[in-house]
Q: What sequence folds into this?
């Protein structure tokens, strides 16, 4: 959602920052995706009613996009709650979307679509990428073998994809991907 807002609604404001972040991302771990775009029909945003100033909301989106780990995200949540009051559901979902994006990157996904109760992911296009010969892709294959009705990996239009069935919200999507990357045990 943050990436979508940046790319579609506030493109000019983020052009320079985006260039810088892409060059930083290229220097990141080579066994995962540099970035992962999330599309969903769920509401993930900072509502005008929570932060009324547009410039302040943009600054918060910018900060969210730069957060790289759970500790930073928790510090952000604490600061936002201190400044603006109890965090609304839409902002909680936005932060859950950030966590989901991290898992997607770790899984080698360039894009995830969470709509109509399914999570569909597209892996890195370059199948020579180190991710495919590393532990990350092996974990994906183990999850698919362990739960073939829930997880499916297939190729479509020359791209490797994964589908996770029965995913109703971001929390379920996150738990499903945590199982794949080995953070949570299968249920």
A:
């Amino acid at each position: 959602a943050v990436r979508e807002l940046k790319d579609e609604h506030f493109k000019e404001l983020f052009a320079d920052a985006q260039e810088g972040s892409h060059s930083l991302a290229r220097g990141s771990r080579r066994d995962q995706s540099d970035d992962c775009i999330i599309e969903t029909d769920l509401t993930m945003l900072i509502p005008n009613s929570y932060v009324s100033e547009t410039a302040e909301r943009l600054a918060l989106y910018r900060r969210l996009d730069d957060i790289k780990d759970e500790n930073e995200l928790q510090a952000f949540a604490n600061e936002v709650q201190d400044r603006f009051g109890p965090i609304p559901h839409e902002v909680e979902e936005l932060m859950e979307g950030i966590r989901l994006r991290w898992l997607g990157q770790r899984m080698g996904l360039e894009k995830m679509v969470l709509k109509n109760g399914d999570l569909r992911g597209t892996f890195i296009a370059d199948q020579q990428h180190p991710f495919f010969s590393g532990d990350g892709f092996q974990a994906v294959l183990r999850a698919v073998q362990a739960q073939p009705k829930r997880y499916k990996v297939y190729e479509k239009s020359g791209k490797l994809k994964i589908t996770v069935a029965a995913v109703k919200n971001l929390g379920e999507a996150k738990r499903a991907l945590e199982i794949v990357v080995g953070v949570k045990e299968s249920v």
Confidence is low (pLDDT under 50) at residues 12-30. Residues 116 and 142 are 25 Å apart (CA to CA). Residues 2-181 form a domain with the Aspartate Aminotransferase, domain 1 fold (CATH 3.90.1150.50). Strands lie at 37-40, 109-115, 118-123, 151-156, 159-164.
